[in-house]
Amino acid sequence: MTTPVRPSGAALHAPPRSLSPVLLLMGKGGVGKTTIAAGLAVLEAETHGAAILVEFGDGDAGKRALGPSHRAVQHVVIRPNDAVHRAAIPLFGSATVAKLVLGNFAMKPLLGVAPAIRELAMLELVRQLAADRPGVRIVVDMPATGHSVAWLRVPKQGRDFLGSGPLFEMCDRIGRELLSPGRASILVVTLPERLVIEETLELCASVRQETGLHVDRIVVNRVPVALPPQALLDARAWVDAKGPQAGAAAQLAAVLEAREAARAEATASLDALATKDHAMWHVPLAPTDPYARDVARWLLAEGAP
Amino acid sequence: MSAVDPYVVVCAGGGGVGKTTTSAALALALAQAGRTTLIVTIDPARRLAGAMGVPITDEVTQVTLASAHGNLWALMPDPHRSLYTFAEQLFEGEPEAKARMLANRLYIGLADAAAGIHELVAMSLVARAAAQGKFDVIVIDTAPSRHAIEFVTLPGRLAALLGGRTVTWLAGVAQRAGGGTPSGASAGLVGWGAAHVENLLARVTGPTLVRDTGDLFRDLAVVRERFVALTEHAGKLLLGPTAAYLLVTAPTAAGRDDVLFLAQRLEAMGRAPRAIVMNRADTGPAPYAHALASHSASSASIALALTMLDEERASRSEAAERLSLDFRRHLAGVPIVRLPFIDATAPDQVVRTLSRELTPHLRVLVPDEHR
Q: How far is A135 from chain B (nearest CA, A)?
């Protein structure tokens, strides 16, 4: 479709680490995480026959991003309230007891305002899914930035805090079997804008420091299209000639200048990323929602998965 | 509600639709129209803070943009400080309880996962600013999530939790966990159930969690009145008659679904959106396109650039058209304000351009007496 902006430096990429069975996609809100997650799941399903897309929430976003034509992808929706009940069953030994405890007059309102419990439960369900379906790539669409690092910290905090008991063991299991190198890879989705990239670099640092996991890939989404560079020069010359329609030419020149500035900024911020130790994939800017199959094709061209 | 209560405009929408920029542009347009306006960003993007020339702090700061005519103020609370501010507000004059709360591992360890605390603190700061009586309009930019709107009911939910039996029970649990005595002594069916639940919980989680939870809630129960007072005003401001909800969106499928979802949530709260603001929703060809394309001085490069720009524009317009039809069908009677795509990278320039685009629509977005 288009030629994405490339970092200007040479040989900037470290040799990419191979990806683990579970891919956790992170990034700030609005960067297109769900679109990339769906594209990756479709690519994986098309190349290996099966893939699972995990979505936390009501399932709308993943369904929309996958589109109607991708039956090969199994779309697993984990709803917060169900998750607590399902994850609690093995802890309490039976569904009835779990229901009794969690439905208790005091527990119910407490669970309503205690999000860490739900996050732990949702991660436990991903762990179970990975254990039940070995060999199938699982793409997890994580919630937006700050919040998702907090998520990944919950099992470790729980383990340090609790010291013993079945809940401690659950935290420990999630840490060993899901949130460890070789089990899960972190992919961070970002945009080629200076400040978004700054946040991305901070996110990468806090992932490393606080979770012990690596950021294995950075996906740069919506890389802007190049307009013909000669057009800006021509429009400026038109303005300088002060002839007919010079006002309209000035408006066009302003738009082209803004695009040029956006591209220069994109290139500079991609350079900033490329000096760090991350492999990158680039996905071009589409004026409207791309289909998951298109995203899969773009990712394939970048060497994914 | 007193007569001096400001009009509150809550801007809600999914991520990536330009909500923060739109909120800032609306506040700027109101300031230009002579209204003393406060812009509150719950999830402060440093980019916007920079564009508006204000620091990220719990204090209300005047925006120095010349075009704001001295009428614009900003409040961009720091999410990293929320826990501390919250403890400070609740335990003012009670340093021991405050210290206990800030030392409670559960409070510190889990609260950054509890996004609600930041919203709550931000709202208490808004209530404090509103009480000054200085502001005509307060524009609130919510966090970029379709669930962000739930924050308006959080004060009520937390107050209910603190006032309910949960806290009494948890505080009791803490005491018993401290003393090591089982709680079988409680009378009645509720007591029996609670005792069993407590034993089961302690077995599953170990005693530490139960004890820390109990400790936390015992301190919170003491300041319940203060908590309710802190949140009550904010709740009234947000759900009262001088509050309006604007749904900000962009012509994407996610934007469409987020608006319909948010409208549904508002309906459940007994509210309707005042208007939908659609960004990147150009209504026709660029004003310069025809003049240049048909002109003999045009070059091949200009022609190509115009074609590429026009194709982009057309696909945005088409998507915006489809979305508008959908909104008219599902949300009949809700006005739709369409704004063009802004070709600029500097955030302050985008805010200024958008505020010019918004000015003719202020009547639709904010009622007369507050405009």
A: 31
> How do residues B176-215 score in pLDDT, each as one tens digit?
655 444 444 444 444 456 677 777 777 887 777 777 777 7
pLDDT in tens, B58-77: 889 999 888 899 999 999 98
Is residue A283 helix, strand or coil? strand
Predicted structure pTM score: 0.84
Test B292 with A154 for CB contact under 8 angstroms.
no
**Contact yes or no for B306/B293 (Cβ under 8 A):** yes
Determine the residue type at B60.
V
Interface contact B252-A288, CB threshold 8 A: yes
CB atoms A30 and B16 under 8 Å: yes
Q: Which domains does chain A have, with CATH numbers?
A: 22-227+277-301 (3.40.50.300)
- The answer to whether B142 and B12 have CB atoms below 8 angstroms apart is yes
pLDDT tens per residue, range B311-347: 989 989 999 999 999 999 999 999 999 999 998 878 8
The DSSP secondary structure of B23-65, one letter per residue, reads HHHHHHHHHHTT--EEEEESS--HHHHHHHT--SSSS-EE---
Q: Which residues of B touch A150 (CB under 8 A)?
A: 112-113
Render B158-186 in DSSP notation, one character per residue. Answer: HHHHHHSHHHHHHHHHHHHHHHT---TT-
Q: What's the rounded Cα separation, in Å, for the pair B234 and B120? A: 9
Nearest to A84 by CA among A132, A120, A126, A30: A120
Residue B184: which of B166, B160, B202 has the closest Cα? B202
